[in-house]
Amino acid sequence: MTELAATIRRTRRSRLARSSWRTHVVLGISLLVMVYPLIWLVGASFKPEDQIFSTWNPLPLHGFTLSNYTSGWTATGTSFTVYIANSLVISGLVVIGNLLTCSAAAYAFARLDFAGKKLWFGLMLSTLMLPFQATMIPQYAIFYKLHWVNTFLPLVVPYFLAVDAFFIFLMTQFIRGIPRELDEAAEIDGAGHVRVFFSVILPLLRPALITTTVLTFVWIYSDFLRQLVYLNDNSRYTVPLGLNSFVDRASGSSYGGLLAMSVVTLLPMVLVFLVFQKRLVDGVANAGIKG
Predict the structure, then answer these.
(1) Most exposed among 98, 155, 195, 264, judged by the fewest C-beta atoms under 10 Å?
(2) Which of 52, 67, 82 is a domain's end point?
(3) CB 59 within 8 A of CB 39
(4) Enclosing domain of residue 39
(5) Is the pLDDT of residue 251 over 70?
(6) One domain, residues 28 and 172
């Protein structure tokens, strides 16, 4: 019996090893398929113009050049530094707006009692199903009357009015997971809602705030349509519009500079993700679906 049991265990281990080996092969191939476009982009940005599409090999084996970066930086007539600075300014202001107003709205939904609370929360969530294209024309008409077109204001000001329902929902669910006893203890010490919010809730809300920061930055930094609608001056263009302008000026025939600037464009988002990767996952996981 002992020998039979040992044989069964060896058979099971052998099957598990084969299964694990097949799983790793499949995952490795899938990873290569997903990462290959990025590898090709980076490699092609260092190739001479006439070799970019000459082979499937992404590595610049037959010529290495930095000319795509030097020429592409000013190929649109405006330094790419301007586009990056504009994108960082808009993204940074939107992040601040979302953190302040979405967290305050979330605290109200999670902790305060007011008439029609569930109704307003449901209406807020329903806006998640409303695409930007549906409200684009009315919003443009309003901002045009305010003389905000071709400024950063239409891209920034709305986010200081708690318009991002996704992050309000995320923070609301997170706050609902914080014990109410902490609020009650602060209220016994004489703290009002404002003091409770800033002294008790916000410090504990840090994972959700980090998640909001990362996702807001990535979404706004890479946004194209909204910025295309409101910005028409090359000096106010953001990175997506700068790349689009580069394509227009290149008439679709010069790709070296475009690929090089695309690599430069990816760097801030990759850096933000690498720095906050662990906290981003924790923030989403801890928010959960409560209540």
Answers:
(1) 195
(2) 67
(3) no
(4) 2-67
(5) no
(6) no
Q: Do 63 and 76 sit in the same domain of this protein?
A: no
Q: Do 31 and 82 share a domain, yes or no?
A: no
Q: pLDDT by residue (tens digit) across 47-92?
A: 887 777 776 777 766 778 888 888 889 888 889 999 999 999 999 9
Cα–Cα dist 258/75, whole Å: 9
Domain boundary among 45, 67, 89: 67
Q: For residue 24, count other CB atoms closer than 10 A to its CB.
A: 10
Is residue 141 located within the same domain as residue 256? yes
Confidence check: pLDDT of 233 > 50? yes
Residues in the chain: 291
Whole-number Å distance between alpha carbons of 20 and 107: 46
Q: What is the mean pLDDT of the chain?
A: 84
Residue 186 has pLDDT above 80, yes or no: yes
Pair 14, 147 in one domain: no
In one-letter notation, the amino acid at residue 188 is I
Distance separating alpha carbons of residues 205 and 279, to the nearest angstrom: 12
Same domain for 99 and 178? yes
CATH number (domain holding residue 256): 1.10.3720.10
- The answer to whether residue 38 scores a pLDDT higher than 70 is yes
Which range among 7-16, 103-112, 268-277 has the greatest average pLDDT?
103-112
**Do residues 102 and 9 share a domain?**
no
Residues 276/213, Cβ–Cβ less than 8 Å: yes
Q: List the one residue out of 266, 220, 226, 269 whose CA is nearest residue 243.
A: 266
Q: How many domains does the chain have?
A: 2
